[in-house]
Design goal:
The structure is a single chain. The chain has 545 residues and is α/β, with parallel strands linked by helices. The two termini are 33 Å apart. It has a 9-stranded mixed β-sheet with strand order 1-22-19-18-3-12-13-15-14, sandwiched between helices. It contains 17 helices and 23 strands. Bound molecules: inosinic acid (IMP) and magnesium ion. The site of inosinic acid has 14 residues, from helix 5.
């Protein structure tokens, strides 16, 4: 009989970096944009790009820019923009450059060296290097390439290393970056993008009847909250659209807020997890913030806004207006809004599983500052998995080239005069890597460049306990599930393992005989979907995961 695991398609699975017992999760937190509200791609990014491009033209940028249309095959999330030279860079976690483009031109070896003599950037120099981390940044990424492309090709402008000259005017890459950033903030903060989205929700937002099912099921076993950087009115409209189904459909008609114990809008993540903001109650009839201090008991489904930053002075928390909501004893200095959420819901950080799409604002900060359990939503995984399956031969070729390279040195030591010529293999590795990259898109994979992991991949591995293509994949696991991390061998352990591989069949046979372990999955129906990782076959070393 075909197992349930085999039936559970790979894109419906949740992948595990660190073991996590779902049973221990007492509270689930959700981000909204690109997590619960999944925007249709590339329609939504095209809309964002056109609004951004038009805004720049209205600011005085050349009309010819209107000829550029969004190309979803170009940008990859997680690229770094060098505001000094106008280059888009793909880097690893140490700042080594893996791919470098100027406009739409791929820069090769010596050309990259001209800009970056060490093929390396100090990525901590956040004043110069801007990480395009979010799915909202995709449109902006593409626009940076369009701007460089346009000005480089236009005969009216003279190319300089740090920008373009037009008569006695100099347009630096830095100033163009600032203009694009300002335009982007303008589109978000004035509600221009939100207004256009709300006018055509069917075109831009995926409505999935499984979402109320998931939230409803979670609500039966744990507390649930929403923490979004969006404002109340937008959140109200989007969540209503996502969760309100006509009566008579499979989902009972329930107001959207009833799915949550707590809703926080305007959270100002990542600040939400650090210094925090003043949480003020929102009047859900008017969308306005309530004045006065609420002193009653915690009310289910209440909406708070984190729009007002807190000021700190000499160790005390001061609220910057007298309108603060919470009757919260601010006895602890430097208390973040996320601490207040924990207090309101009566849960500790480690009891919370927070689901979000922003590797920095949702995942890294909640993990590093608050010790929350984290679930990163990575929609790009659909494509990544598809390429991984379809182009397996290319990955195999890369592996073989690596082995071939290692074998050349096998019989040599520090006394050897022989110096193998490895240029052919190195070039071949470069060609295969480039070919692999193109299978994903013009800037390659989100997670790797050949056999090297990108900065994004390193952060995903480090800060996301679990990750999946979308949050709905939680529906495929019981709330008692133990997400068990695969055993990853360190290089020295892998070397030992390959040496002793031949001995293993003998050894395991001996173990089987002496321990009578059955290597069959012991889950109820004989299949938990984790194969070798089955929680029951691999009890955790400690009960705390
Ligand atoms: P969340 O993902 O639900 O926390 O919400 C993301 C919010 O951030 C949305 O309201 C976006 O409009 C907003 N946002 C995304 N990118 C930018 C930006 O570059 N500038 C200002 N706001 C942004
Ligand atoms: Mg989001």
């Amino acid at each position: 009989m075909e197992s349930r695991a085999a039936k559970r398609e790979i894109i419906q699975r949740v992948f595990v970096n660190r073991s996590l017992t779902l049973e221990n999760i007492k509270c689930y937190g959700f981000d909204m944009d690109y997590t619960l509200a999944v925007y249709k791609s590339p329609e939504y990014e095209s809309l964002g790009f056109e609004l951004l491009r038009d805004r720049l033209v209205s600011m005085g940028y050349p009309h010819e820019l209107l000829g550029y249309m969004y190309d979803p095959t170009f940008p990859t999330r997680g690229l770094v923009y060098d505001t000094t030279y106008g280059n888009l860079l793909k880097i690893d976690s140490n700042g080594n450059i893996l791919v470098c483009t100027h406009g739409f031109e791929y820069l090769r070896g010596e050309k990259v060296d001209e800009y970056y003599p060490n093929k390396f950037i100090q990525r901590d120099d956040t004043n110069r290097f801007y990480i395009l981390n979010t799915l909202f940044n995709l449109t902006e990424t593409y626009l940076y390439a369009c701007l460089v492309d346009f000005f480089t090709k236009s005969s009216r402008y003279k190319n300089c290393m740090k920008g373009f000259k037009h008569g006695d005017l100099f347009m630096s890459h830095r100033s163009m970056f600032q203009d694009v950033r300002d335009a982007m903030d303008y589109l978000h903060e004035t509600g221009t993008l939100k207004e256009r989205t709300l006018k055509n929700l069917d075109k831009y937002v995926i409505k999935d009847p499984r979402l109320p099912v998931l939230l409803g099921r979670i609500k039966e076993v744990a507390k649930v909250f929403l923490a979004t950087n969006s404002d109340f009115n937008y959140t109200e409209a989007i969540m209503k659209y996502l969760l309100d189904f006509p009566s008579g459909s499979k989902n009972p008609k329930k107001p959207w807020r009833s799915y949550f114990d707590l809703v926080v809008v305007d959270t100002k993540k990542p600040l939400f997890f650090a210094g925090g903001t003043v949480l003020r109650q929102v009047d859900t009839d008017t969308g306005k913030l309530r004045i006065g201090t609420y002193t009653g008991d915690f009310q289910h489904g209440t909406v708070y806004s984190g729009g007002t930053p807190m000021f700190f002075s000499s160790g005390c928390v001061h609220k910057c207006t007298p309108l603060a909501y919470v009757s919260y004893p601010y006895s602890t200095p430097f208390l973040g809004s996320s601490d207040i959420v924990c207090d309101l819901l009566d849960v500790r950080g480690k009891d919370i599983l927070y689901v979000g799409d922003h590797i920095f604002g949702d995942i890294l900060k909640s993990k590093k500052r608050q010790g929350w359990k984290t679930f990163l939503v990575v929609p790009e995984l659909v494509k990544e998995l598809q390429v991984w399956a379809d182009k397996a031969s290319m990955f195999e070729e890369l592996k073989h080239l690596d082995i071939f390279l290692a074998e050349l040195y096998q019989d040599l030591d520090s006394g050897s005069q022989e110096c193998p010529d490895i240029t052919v293999i190195q070039n071949k590795i470069k060609m295969v890597t480039y070919g692999m990259d193109l299978c994903y898109g013009k800037m390659g994979s989100l997670l790797r460049c050949g056999s090297t992991k990108t900065l994004f991949a390193s952060q995903l591995l480090r800060y996301a306990d679990i990750y999946s293509t979308c949050c709905l994949n939680l529906l495929n696991y019981p709330f008692s599930f133990l997400f068990r991390a695969p055993l990853v061998l360190l290089p020295h352990e892998a070397a030992v393992e390959s040496q002793t591989k031949e001995q293993i069949p003998e050894l395991s046979e001996h173990m089987l005989r002496s321990t009578s372990i059955t290597w069959q999955c012991e889950c109820e129906d004989g299949d938990c979907g984790q194969e070798d990782n089955c929680a029951r076959n691999n009890p955790p070393a400690s009960t705390e995961t």
